[in-house]
Specification:
It is a single chain. It is built from 6 helices and 7 strands. It has 192 residues and is an alpha/beta fold. The chain has one domain: Formyl transferase, N-terminal domain (Rossmann fold, 3-Layer(aba) Sandwich). The N and C termini lie close together (9 Å).
Length: 192
């Protein structure tokens, strides 16, 4: 069974999909910890409701970057983490964590990479860019995490249509709905 630590900054609905996939047995794993850089993230509330250890680890709580990174490593180690999954985590991951979990640290991105990736390309910004470009389809990419934003090996992609009257918010909701099922499909394969 794979011990998964999820990093999330806001609502945590993708994280909830992973938790539910584990509980149903579709994913051969369990979420052992949740780390958020946002004290007010609903991801931490979800973790508490599920009986999962949740941690608010942000620069504001530590004297320097090194102390903060050490705290993250301590959580990962104390929970025997096998896999790290970034589910809407909006902070760059320290290279030491990427190195330690090489090939076992993943991110979900709300577009078909390599288009619409990189610094600042998250949330509504991605969907606005897709609509402004006139693209007829968008989607979801699950990729390995490297030191450069959104540039790791692509593990899987799913396409989502862009409809004529879509606003960024409507498109975001359609992509997010597919993210929840796609995450479980991909993690089911990875954790077999």
């Amino acid at each position: 069974m794979t011990n998964i630590t999820v990093f999330a900054s806001h609502g945590g609905s993708d994280m909830q999909a992973i938790i539910d996939g584990c509980k149903s047995g579709a994913i051969n794993g369990r979420v052992v910890a949740v780390i958020s850089n946002n004290a007010d993230s609903y991801a931490l509330v979800r973790a508490q409701k599920e009986g999962i250890d949740g941690y608010h680890i942000a620069q504001s709580k530590y004297p320097d970057e090194e102390s903060m990174v050490k705290a993250i490593h301590e959580v990962l180690d104390s929970h025997n983490t096998d896999m790290v999954f970034l589910a809407g985590y909006l902070k760059k991951i320290d290279p030491s964590i990427i190195k330690k979990y090489e090939n076992n640290i993943y991110n979900i991105h709300p577009a078909l990479l390599p288009k619409y990736g990189g610094k600042g390309m998250h949330g509504i910004n991605v969907h606005t860019a897709v609509i402004n470009a006139g693209d007829k389809e968008t989607g979801i990419t699950i990729h390995r995490v490297t030191e450069e934003y959104d540039s790791g090996t692509i593990i899987a992609q799913a396409k989502v249509p862009v409809l004529e009257n879509d606003t960024p918010e409507i498109l975001a909701a359609r992509v997010l709905e597919r993210e929840h099922t796609f995450l479980v499909e991909v993690l089911e394969r990875i954790t077999k």
